[in-house]
Description:
The complex is a heterodimer of chains A (454) and B (275).
Chain A: H1 2-30, E1 37-44, H2 47-54, H3 56-62, E2 66-73, H4 75-87, E3 95-99, H5 102-109, H6 115-118, H7 133-138, E4 140-141, E5 144-145, E6 148-153, E7 155-160, H8 161-166, H9 177-187, H10 208-218, H11 235-251, H12 261-269, E8 275-279, H13 283-289, H14 292-295, E9 298-302, E10 315-320, H15 328-338, H16 341-351, H17 368-373, H18 378-387, H19 411-427, H20 432-450
Parallel strand pairs in A: 1-2, 1-3
Antiparallel strand pairs in A: 3-10, 4-5, 6-10, 7-8, 7-9
Chain B: H1 7-37, H2 41-45, H3 58-65, H4 68-98, H5 105-114, H6 120-133, H7 140-163, H8 168-176, H9 181-210, H10 213-218, H11 225-230, H12 240-260, H13 262-270
Amino acid sequence: MTKKLASRRLFRAALSGGVALSALWALGHGASARAQTTLTVAMAANPQMETAEKLIDAFNAKYPDIKVKFQTLPENELRPTVLKDVATNAGQFDVVMIGSYEVPLWAQKGWVHDLSKDYIPADPGYDVADLTKPIADIVSYKGDLYGLPFYGSSSFTFYRKDLFAKAGLTMPEHPTWDQIASFADKLNDPQHGMSGICLRGVPGWGQNLAALTTVINTFGGSWFDMSWTPQLTSPKTKAAVQFYVDLLRKSGEPDAASDGWQECLQLFSQGKAAMWYDDTVFAGPLIDQAAPDVKNNIGFAFAPVKETKYSGWLWAWGLSIPKTSRHADAAWKFISWVTSKDYIQLAGAKAGWGQVPPGSRNSTYQIPEYQKATAAYSGITQESVNHADPLHPTVGKVPYTGVQYVSIPEFVQIGDFVSQQVAGAISGSLTVDQALDTSQKRVKEIMDDAGYGQ
Amino acid sequence: MSSFRSSRSFGGGVATVATWIGGLLMFAPVAWMVLTSLKTEQQAVSDPPTLFFIPTFAHYVDAFANGFLASAWNSVVAAGVSTIIVILLAVPAAYALAIRPVQKWRDVLFFFISTKMMPVAAGIVPLYLIAKDLDLLNTRLVLVILYVSMNLPLAIWMTRSFMTEVPPELLEAARLDGASRSREMVTIILPLIRPGLASTALLCFIFAWNEYFLAVNFTTTVATLPIFLQKFLSFGKLYTAQVAAVATLVNIPVVAAGWLVQKSLVRGLTFGAVK
């Protein structure tokens, strides 16, 4: 009797458990039941893209049957997330935001749509000719666009006009690295919490190596020679790295080896650094967020040089459509909208002209309101972007493209390793020679493994 | 309020002071987070730190404007439902390991804990592919399933240790009176181990609530709060205060849950400490 009762209870419990599970199933799948097209966009967390997310109502007004959902991740999380999705054919994303480093590599693997062939011819309303040429180039592969540029940027020098005036110094429009080093030395005042210059020191191929590679390029160095032999111990590359490390150790921010753009942005906006060499896209947010006495004293100059005339880097965030997307046509509607001239007008009017995505379109620089709001830096930005040459990044001939990175799949591994050695040199635990010798050896191993130069 | 001095009250005084110091040290980072969340971005990064300022709630408003509630709901479902299922499964499992041990119960117990020995990262690829094939990616259900399997071994071990503390005489008396197994479990054991169950449930809830790695790998737009938080780590602007505000909001439900079960928690965690 008791046993029978118990088994009946057990049955009932199992039944209710089953009901609960199927309810859960419905719970999970209710979210993806769709009456209209829902696009899932993976995007990097940055102020310009946040603005786009806020203005999505304007897109919905134009295309009421397309709903857009965003997944916003910091750059370092976005890369593996999107890569995993595309490489396993999971097809969760209809639009992915990928950097100019990834676009050609992914295009080569056939992971993303060739927009120049699949979509642009059928959409004459999309003004391709207006895209900034160098930026369009770096989100292309073999001449075809595989991503639409959302924003593009170069690098330049931020400096404190008031401190320069007080010290009787003048920042040239095109400073040389030697001038920068002497300014930094004069303005460095650690006792009063002032660093001569703030530079990225923290490891990461997109952190200290981005800045350092532009220095290597303008010093006449390179990552590889024409037969893909690493050039990290070549005299010019070594001179550039030695210069960067010495500059940071002598007049850079304290704890430079653990500082990236975040820390430099904090230090410079708080008036703790006299100069800062970094991405042009920071100009708008910096002026917005700097302390009151810093805000009105920020000057801008071109990226410092040595043997070349220009040395700014070149970066773009592109919006691509993975081949696995089930809503590729709707995805095109979204990416063409958010990279259009109309969108830039909308973002300027609604979110402020300092917040529009810069660098992607020539017409942006013709908008009077934009010119007025960004007069201090937009000219230098545009000229820097236009003079960056990702196809010929170095003084001598090299087999690779990309200014502050090398457009090969192995570069993430190579760059992360070398950047750690460089950070070691910046912190003083290694000499530059040690750091570069170790790097040269490891990079050679990686390249040999991958079969380059054979 | 005793006024006489003895070595005992002196020792007690030292213990009290030490406890307070320890408590304040533990609380300081939390207080700093809350304080930072009420500053402007400039004040948040200023050095020396700003201590006196006019509080702003702008970052909280921003958090809600960016979809805090939707993510909070996902977190509540994933953490809440998984915790309920864990407890429902852990109690009978622990019963079969403690009160009426099955054959080779030691091996079974060891098997449960052995599932926690491999790092999650090592199993992520097969798990991901299975979830993909079952069309479960980006659902709350997949998180519930994962969190149940993540927390179940711990819950079984904890519940089992609480059950072994139940005096066998009580159970014998109940059996003599003809109580069935389920009745024995529901009316005798459960009330006795309630404090232990509460602390087990709270721990499971906290682990699921704070879980990041599985959530970032298995979901995209159905984001839980730890994923929502990093949306604010934005390239090219200051975000310390904004992130502090979101982190404060994320903490509130956990603190509230902890406070609700506080009494049981203290008893639960010391359960069986003294025989």
